[in-house]
Design brief:
Elements lengths: L4 H12 L2 H5 L2 E9 L2 E4 H12 L6 E10 L2 E9 L5 E10 L2 E7 L1
């Protein structure tokens, strides 16, 4: 399955280190949960992005995507100066933006 546009932009912005484009993939009131730590809205997600994503030079590769129950379950490979390895991300979309992202 091809990645939906918002998820593709999320990966591309991360890999390019483009913080503005990264934040633009989310709705204004989006929720990001990373192993139980929650970040609400673009301001909160920007903090997470600085400490756990672009701020640690993450590079993402999609391994697989499965759509079920109104969500996209993405297995992703991460490399950079933070977490390295594979993990699971669950995206819920609202139009052309990400409404929620759960990392587990």
């Amino acid at each position: 399955m091809a990645a939906p546009e918002p998820i593709r932009r999320f990966v591309e912005a991360t890999n390019a280190g483009d913080m503005e484009a990264f934040l633009d993939t989310f709705t204004a009131d989006a929720l990001l949960t990373d192993w139980g730590r929650s970040f609400r809205g673009r301001e909160g997600i920007a903090r997470w992005n600085q400490t756990d994503n672009i701020g640690v030079r993450s590079c993402l590769d999609i391994v697989r995507i499965v759509q079920s129950d109104g969500a996209y379950h993405v297995r992703i490979k991460v490399a950079g100066n933070g977490f390295n390895g594979e993990g699971d991300m669950t995206f819920k979309l609202d139009g052309d933006r990400i409404a929620s992202l759960v990392i587990a």
